[in-house]
Predict the 3D structure of the following.
Amino acid sequence: MSTSVKVKTITMREAIVEALHEEMERDEKTVLFGEDVGKFGGINAITRGLYEKFGGKRVFDTPIAETTIVGAALGMAITGLRPIPELQFGDFVGIAFDEVFNKLGKWRFMHGGQMEVPVTLRLPVGIAGGAGPEHSQSPQALFMHAPGVKIAIPSTPYDAKGMLKTAIRDNNAVLFFEHKLLYAMKGEVPEEEYLIPLGKADVKKEGKDVTIIATALQVQTSLEAAEKLAKLGVEAEVVDPRTLAPLDMETILQSVRKTGRVLIVHEEPKTGGCGAEIAAQISEQALFDLQAPIKRIGSPDVPIAQSIYLEQFYRPSEDQIIEAVKELMEY
Amino acid sequence: MAEIYQKEIDLKKYSKEELTRYYREMVKIRKFDEHLIRLMMEGKVSGFYHSGIGSESVSVGSITNILRDEDYIYYNHRGCNQKIAKGVPLSKIYGDFLGTVEGTTRGLGAGIVHSADPSRGVLGQCGTIGSQFNIAVGTAYSAKIQNTDRVTLVYFGDGAASREPLHGSLNWAGLYKLPIVYICENNGYAISSTTEETHSVREHIADWAWGYGIPNCVVDGNDVLLMRECVSEAVERAKRGEGPTFIEAKTFRHRGHFEGDTYDYVDPEVLKYWKEHKDPIKNFKKLVIENGICTENDLLNVEEQLELEILQAIKKAEEASLPSPERIYEGLFA
Ligand SMILES: Cc1ncc(C[n+]2csc(CCOP(=O)(O)OP(=O)(O)O)c2C)c(N)n1
C-alpha cells in the first residue's frame, strides 16, 4: 500500500462489516438475510449493527431453511433486489446445492440470458476449533465445476473488504468464502473507499525460486513459511488467486515461468481440490517452464475430526510447506 | 381441512367479450399443443414434451383477465399453458421448441423447460421440479419490499408438491405474509404414481397450507369460471397485503406424462370419463351456447382464426435461422 493513502489497522471481521455497511448504505435495493443475522448480528458477528441501521425489512432473520434462503435470494435478484444471504456455515451449502449449482449459476443462461442474478452468498469455511466434520469444511472447489458462479476467497482484511464490495455490486452470483480463523486477523485497510476486481490474483510476496499458490488461511501460513525459507536461502513467491472463478491464470503462469517450481497449498481435501485444477492448467500451459513436478498440499481425504487435538493434522502447516519446498529445490 | 371451493356463478356478470376470450385462450393453448405434437411426429421437434391437454382451464382461469404483465409467474413443466395465457407470443414458444433464434432463448432450444419472458412477468421454470417454491418467495418478498402490488403465482403438480422446498416456502410465505398464490395442478399422477401413493396428508394437498396459517381450498380446475373466481379472490387478497393463498386445482391429463408415454397405468374408463365429461373446453362451449351467449358459429370463427394464427407463428419460428455454434458461450454472465 502506498504511503500517501491513509490507512487503519482492522480485523477481517471489521473489514467485512464495513463493506456490508457501506454497500447497504449505497444501494437501497440491497437486502441481507440469514439465520440470526438480525438483532443478534450473526454467529460470527459479521452483520452487527446492520439491523439497527437498516431495519427489519432489509435485514432479517430467516427460519433454518438453507434451500429457501438461497432460492429466495434468486427470486429477489431477478426482480430488482440485490440480496446478500448468509449461510451460517459454508458446509450447509450442500443443503442448498440445487439452488447454488442448478439455479444461481444457470438461471440467467438457461433462460436465454434475459435476467440478472446479483446475489452475494456469504459462506464461512475452514477448520476453527473443534467444530467437527460438518462445520469445518472448505467446499469452494465444488463450484469451480459449476459454470455461472464466481468464487471469491479472500485472505486479508484489505482483500476481504475490497472484494466483498465488488461482489455486491456485481450483477452475477458470487459465492464469497470467508475462512473463520481469518476473522480475527488484523491488517491495513485504506480509510478511503476502494474496490478490488474479481478475477485478479495477487502476488503477496515476490521471490524467484519457487511459486507457492495458496488460498484463504493458507496464504498466511505460506507467507510465514516463506520467511523461514528466506533464512535458508530460498526465495519463495506467494501467489493468492483471490478468486477461483474466474481464475487468473495469467498471474499464476507469469510467476511459474519465473520460478519453474510450484507448490499449491489449500485446506480442502487434496483430491479434487482447487489445486487439482490449477495444477492441470499449469501443466497444460507451462509444462516446459517447470523444473520439477507440481506439488500439492491439501487436507487428507477423510472427514475432519471433532477433536481439537486431531483437527490440526488436517490443516496444512508451515513445516509441511517448508519440507515440500525443500524437495522441489532438489530438482 | 381444506374446503371445496364452491360458488354460484352468475354468467350475467361476464360480458360476451370476456367469455369469448376465455374460450379463445383455452382453444389457443390446445391448438398450440396439438400442432406441437404434430411437429414432434414430423421429427422437427426433439426432447421431452409434457402436454397440457385437459387442463387449459387451470391456466386460463388463473391468469386471463386476472394477472397483469407486471405480475409474476413461475410455470410448471406442463406450463406452455401458463406461458400462452400470460401472453408470450406463440412464435417465440415454437421457436424454443424448434431451436431457432426466434425462441425466447434465441436458439438454446429450451422448449417447455426454461423459457422466459420477463417483460410479461414470466420468470422461468425449474428443471428440478418444485425448486420454484423458494424462488417464488424471493420474488414475492421483492414486490413487498419495493412497495408494489405485484403478485407472484407459482404453479406445480401434485408430484412436485412432495418436494421439501414447498414447506420452506410455505413457512416463509405465511411468516412474512407474502403476496403469493400457490396453484397446485393436481392431475392425480406424478408420472405413474398416484397422489395417494406419495402424499401423507389429511385428505387434500391443500391441507398442508392450513398448518402454516395460509388460506387454502380445493377447486374444480376444469371449470374455468370457478377457477377464475377462486384465483381472483386470492390475487386480490395478496394485493391488499393479506398474504398467501394455496389453491389445489383438480384436473386430469388427457395424454401420458410425456409424449411417447404408453399411459397404461391409468384405467381407460377413468380417462374416458374425464375426456367425455370433464373436458374444460367442451363444457365451456356447451355452457355459453346453451345460455345463448355465443353461437356455434361465433366459436367456430374463433377456432378458424386461431388455426391461422398458429400456422403463421410456426412459419415464423421455422423460418428463423438456427443459432451459430458460438451461441452456447453467450449470456452466462451479465
Ligand atoms: C427434483 C426432480 N425430481 C424428479 C424429476 C423428474 N420428473 C419430472 S416431471 C415428474 C413428475 C411430476 O409430477 P407432477 O408434479 O404431479 O406434475 P405432472 O407431470 O403430473 O403435471 C418427475 C418425477 C425432476 N424433473 N425433478
